[in-house]
Amino acid sequence: MPHIPDPPRPGRPKDSTKHAAILAAAKQLFARQPFEQVTMEAVAAQATVSKMTVYSHFHDKETLFEAIVTSVADQMIGILSGSDLRDAPLRERLVAVGRDFLGVILAPGVCEMAHSLPATLRDNRPLALRFYNAGPGRVRRALAAMIAGAAERGDLAVDDPAFAADDLVSLWEGSRPAMIAFGLAEPVLPEEIRQRAERGTDIFLRAYRPDAGEG
Amino acid sequence: MPHIPDPPRPGRPKDSTKHAAILAAAKQLFARQPFEQVTMEAVAAQATVSKMTVYSHFHDKETLFEAIVTSVADQMIGILSGSDLRDAPLRERLVAVGRDFLGVILAPGVCEMAHSLPATLRDNRPLALRFYNAGPGRVRRALAAMIAGAAERGDLAVDDPAFAADDLVSLWEGSRPAMIAFGLAEPVLPEEIRQRAERGTDIFLRAYRPDAGEG
DNA sequence: TAGATACTGGACGCGACGGTATAGGATCAA
DNA sequence: TTGATCCTATACCGTCGCGTCCAGTATCTA
């Protein structure tokens, strides 16, 4: 996404801080309420900006929403593409990916939104796909590759790396995202994220360790 | 919930088939769209009933929604309270519970709704709690008890039965519910439910088998 | 048969919200 | 300074959906 460097137009330029403020306000509101319940007036008020300004930066409510989703997706990519640790032992690599993944998916703002997204995105397949591929999908693909490599080296006894990656992610998450979405649990602390990543990884390794004799 | 047997009132009695039709129509619509997008007119049309009739049976849109949630929750309880199989081997018992659970949670109508519920129920804790306790919560409690029993008998090496139950449910579900909610996958066939229940259970048993030496 | 209630269909009041219009002040480049 | 554009504030329009009212008809009990 190369940011075209403003072809110098006459008149007063747009205030990029307002743009950011609107984006931040919308992100916060969409995280709390589903699409229909977020009013453009509320976004404007939250950003301490006139409603007209909102419409001057984002033509549409849907355009604004898509900008949010895209932004979160990009943020996910940024965080998740860093965690690899080429030559650390397998467990450490998995735990690191798990920590990053949980850090994103359980973040105070993201988690609630992630669970109100489906309802809104069900009739917007392209955007839904993009979001999924930037977050959960990306992690699953990376994990499947790591697992396949470990299997070839004989470090894991795995039938299908994709299934195994799914298992690992599921063990990391547990019921936490659902509970948060239901409003039955508070957002997690970093300490719990670390514990979940380690616990899930250990259980995974125990289930798939080579001497378990599973084809 | 004992159904009070109609204190005989004068005049034409309410048509219970209409009541059921409204409930069914609403269940179908709420499964597809979030709360705000379902119009009472649509419910009436779907039930081939006048809008006024809808309001005569359910005072409110929220009342109707709560009736749906309650109905689904009761249905869950009905299905899930049957699966126990007192003296079958552990694996068979777990697989049976898993099949029932997945059958409910991945059912064509329930799964989509389950993922639009949180957004609607976040400001209705009691109802959210009731739903959770009737479905996922109930299963987790039952599983924790079964797992604790197996651990006492030495059939499993488990630190915390509640965590372990969480792991098992997570392995059963995988990413399927999320994918369906995002509209990126179709509702599942019974065959896949069986496979998931067995696969998840086997992986769980492998991770927690006693000779793995985990405290 | 009479009285009471249920169902239908259409019309409608009302509030909420997305989006537009307008007018006036602010801020930039030339 | 000028002209173009941005931002604000407010008023406004159109629509949509909830919930109600009403007049007419159907159905039940006594």
From TrEMBL, chains A, B:
Pinpoint the HTH tetR-type domain residues.
Answer: 16-76
Residues annotated to bind DNA: 39-58
Keyword Transcription regulation found? yes
Known Gene3D superfamilies for this protein? Homeodomain-like, Tetracycline Repressor, domain 2
Keywords noted in UniProt: DNA-binding, Transcription, Transcription regulation
Task: State one molecular function term (GO).
Answer: DNA-binding transcription factor activity
> Is Cytoplasm among this UniProt entry's keywords?
no
User: Which InterPro entries does the entry link to?
Assistant: Homeodomain-like_sf, HTH-type_TetR-like_transc_reg, HTH_TetR, Tet_transcr_reg_TetR-rel_C_sf, TetR_C_Proteobacteria
Q: Which Pfam families does the record cross-reference, listed alphabetically? A: TetR_C_7 (PF14246), TetR_N (PF00440)
Against PANTHER family, the record matches this protein to: HTH-TYPE TRANSCRIPTIONAL DUAL REGULATOR CECR, HTH-TYPE TRANSCRIPTIONAL REGULATOR RUTR
Name of the protein in its database record: HTH tetR-type domain-containing protein
